[in-house]
Amino acid sequence: MGRRGGAIGRAAAGRERIGRSAAAVDATSRSRHRISSTSIIIVIASVVGIVLILLAQLYLGTLMHRGVGGESVHPKLAVGGESSRRPALPHVVASSRHNNTSARAQYEPIIPATATTAGGPLLQPIFQCDDRPTFRQNKLVFVHVFKTAGSTIRNFFDAYSDWCFAGWAIIIGCATVDIDTIGSNGIGKNGNGAAAEYWNATHPIPGEPTCSMKRTWNRTGSRRFKMNVDNRYVARELDIIGGHLPLGVEDVWQNTEHLTNEVGGDVSVTHMTFVRNALDKLVSGTSYKTSNPTVDGVVAKIRSDVENYLADARYQNKYAEYYITPRQKKEYAERDVILSAEESAVQQMANLLEYNVIVGATERMSDSLLLLRTLIDENGEAAELFEEFGMAPEQGRSKEHTEHKSRPRLKEGMVARAERTEAEPTGENELPLVINPSELSTRSIVRQLKKDAMLFLDALEFVRYEQQISDFALAMHIRQFKLRPETPQRN
């Protein structure tokens, strides 16, 4: 019993020690759990606090840049202690050529004096397809941005000129045309105050011919090739001009003091242009300018260009050659102002609106051709011609090739174009559709770009302002398409 009693006592003591140890462990565990929970709460509270602080700073910063009624005011726009207000557009300030902060010039987009937004609907017919040579009081300027379906549209106007007895000319090398040589603005070749005879480019673009007409047809079908852009000829003989030229050349008809006999009254001018996804435009342009291009070679060229430009904080700005007018370019130069890419984009978008430019989109060719048809085929006489170049057939009528019996010049013009472009018509009554073919597809090069994630992101950054303009213009195109007036259908 003694041994048994001692063993029982020792066992009881052991259980007591084990119980105390377990209790201690449990207490420690609960304590650690409380510490862990407290730490998590502290971390969450800290993160929330930081977020709130950042939001407060952002809000205060916004207030510092915000005027009454939601107008944005950039602090650098304060000149002489007075703040300047503008609509809620990107905050932009144009710097002087000498980058002198104290000499910074206040920037405001220059509103064209000949803007047309005050009048009428977004899109309305300007003339019809005639069956005889007729002077048209309304004119059309096609602004051909490089690599935006321009070759297709130029070939279309070749055919339309034959079909509808319209005067038409393809103008090249005039993206930097001097405003002082257009219409009666000219100061004369010898500075004698006489009106200039021909257009002249201020800064010819490398690789492009000097400002000239590549080919032209007057209303009676007479053709001329490789001639100067003659003010009198344009005003008297042409209804449509198009090519690498900017917005703002309408003075050739509108400012015509010395061309009164040729024009014979007020002339209304409508502008049309095409836009394209900015990255696709970059890829297509690079491929076009690369000798014996390969996918890897074009990608390497894009890599080099993008890296070099972004290293200097420069962005693609090719639209500016076409969407900033010659008069604006001259005025900015006189002010000693160089626009940044962002400022330039704002000016270009303002111009597209102010000129009420009719916008086509390379990715929406059928809808774009229907817009064009609304402009220049008011009587519905040329529906088949538009369909030949990609417009969807009218509802209830299947696509059929046009019989040219009533347009004898069209077949002759078709053959001439085929000879010049080395493109054979696929049938007796079919038009050769030449779309400036490339040896490589844009899609294949873009796919290769995407394989290098950093290069692809850099390329998107490089074209960010061009894409902004493309998106803005595409929105204009969609709105114009939805609000277009009805065009007569042919049976």
Q: Residue-averaged pLDDT, rounded? A: 74
**Tally of DSSP β-strands:** 9
Radius of gyration: 34 Å
- Structural class, from helix and strand content? alpha/beta
Order of helices and strands, N to C? HEEHEEEHEHHEHHHHEHEHHHHHH
Alpha plus pi helix count: 16
Uncertain spans, ≥5 residues at pLDDT below 50? Answer: 1-5, 56-106, 114-120, 187-192, 399-411, 413-434
Major sheet size, sense and barrel closure: 7 strands, mixed
End-to-end gap: 125 Å
Oligomer state equals single chain
Topology, element by element:
Layout: H1 2-64, E1 95-96, E2 138-143, H2 150-164, E3 168-172, E4 212-217, E5 223-227, H3 231-237, E6 240-243, H4 251-254, H5 260-263, E7 268-275, H6 278-289, H7 295-311, H8 320-323, H9 326-334, E8 337-338, H10 341-354, E9 358-361, H11 365-376, H12 383-388, H13 408-421, H14 442-450, H15 453-462, H16 464-482
Parallel strand pairs: 2-6, 2-7, 3-6, 7-9
Antiparallel strand pairs: 1-8, 3-4, 4-5
Report on the structure:
- The chain has 491 residues and is α/β, with parallel strands linked by helices.
- It has 16 helices and nine strands.
- The protein has helices spanning 2-64, 150-164, 231-237, 251-254, 260-263, 278-289, 295-311, 320-323, 326-334, 341-354, 365-376, 383-388, 408-421, 442-450, 453-462, 464-482; strands spanning 95-96, 138-143, 168-172, 212-217, 223-227, 240-243, 268-275, 337-338, 358-361.
- The strands form two sheets. Strands 5-4-3-6-2-7-9 form a seven-stranded mixed β-sheet.
- Helix 2 packs antiparallel against helix 13, helix 6 packs across helix 14 and helix 7 (295-311) crosses helix 14 (442-450).
- The radius of gyration is 34 Å and the shape is globular.
